[in-house]
C-alpha cells in the first residue's frame, strides 16, 4: 500500500486496525500516521475500549433442541461400547491354566508365552462426546465486530459530513456578506461618479443661504442631469423627533421632496448625492426645512436654507 495516507483513509481504516484485520503494510502505514498525528489517540482509545466490550455485547443464544438431542445420542453411542468392554471380562472370565491342569491330575506344561502378558483392552475415550461446538459463538462475535465497525464508520462519516455542511454554511454566509459589501461599494462608486460629474461639469449651481430661522447656514447645490450634489454647513443637530428635509421648488405648484437629510443634516465634511424626481426636473429653487421624524409630503416646519 502506498505511503502517505490521508485523514479520511485513516479514519476509514481505523476500526479494522483496532481489530487487527488489515494487511501488514496497511497496519504499518496506519501506525506511522498515528505516530505523526497524536490527536487521534483519543479516537483510537475509544475504539479499543468498544472492541474489548464486544464479548459482553453479544446476545445469549440458546442452541436448538435438535442440537441437544444429537449431542446426547452421540454420547450414548460412544458410551455403549465402553460398558460392553467393562462387563465382557466379568461374563467370560478365563480359567487359570494351572488350576485346570491340577484339577485334571496333569502336570501343567510351561507355556511358551504367558497368556497374562496380553494387554488389557483399553476403554475408548468419551471426551470427544463431551465437546461442545462453539462455532456459533465465534460467528456471533464476528458479526458483532462487523456491525460495530459499520456503526463506527457511519458515525465518523456522519460527523465529517456535518462538519463540511457547517463549513459550507459559514462560507455561504461570508459570501453573502461580501456580496452586500460589494453592492454598497458599487453604490458608493456610482455616487462618487455622479458627484464628480456634478462638480466638474454641472448643469446648474445653486447657492443656499440661511433664513431668519438659521442665519448661520450656508450651502450649494450642484445639478447634473437627474442627479444633484448638496454641500451645506451650519445645520444644528435636532431632537430625535425631528429631521431635515430637502425640497425642490418648481416655478409653480407645491415643493417636491428630494429626500431626508437626517437629524444632523449635511455637515461640512460630508457630501449628499440627491436623485432628482422626474416631476421636479424644471425646479426653480432649493430649500431645506425642519420636519417631524419620517418627513412630510409638503413643508410644514420652518425653512432654514433657501436658494
From TrEMBL:
Membrane topology of the entry: Single-pass membrane protein
GO biological process: any one? regulation of translation
Where is coiled-coil annotated?
161-195
Q: Give one Pfam hit by family name.
A: RskA_C
Example GO CC term: the record gives: plasma membrane
Task: Give the Gene Ontology MF terms in alphabetical order.
Answer: sigma factor antagonist activity
Location of the region described as Disordered in the Swiss-Prot/TrEMBL record: 104-124
Q: Which residues cross the membrane?
A: 134-157
Q: Which compartments does it reside in?
A: Cell membrane; Membrane
Q: Which UniProt keywords apply?
A: Cell membrane, Coiled coil, Membrane, Transmembrane, Transmembrane helix
In terms of domain of life, where is this protein from? Bacteria
Transmembrane: is it a keyword of this entry? Answer: yes
Primary place of residence? membrane
Q: Where is the composition biased (Low complexity)?
A: 108-124
Report the protein name in the record: Regulator of SigK
